Amino acid sequence: MTDITIFHNPQCGTSRNVLALIRNSGAEPEVIEYLVNPPSRETLQRLIGQMGIPVCDLLRRKGTPYDELGLDDPALSDAELIDAMLAHPILINRPIVVTPLGTCLCRPSEAVLGILPSPQVGALRKEDGAPVVDKRGERIAGR
Question: What is the pTM of this model?
Answer without folding.
Answer: 0.94
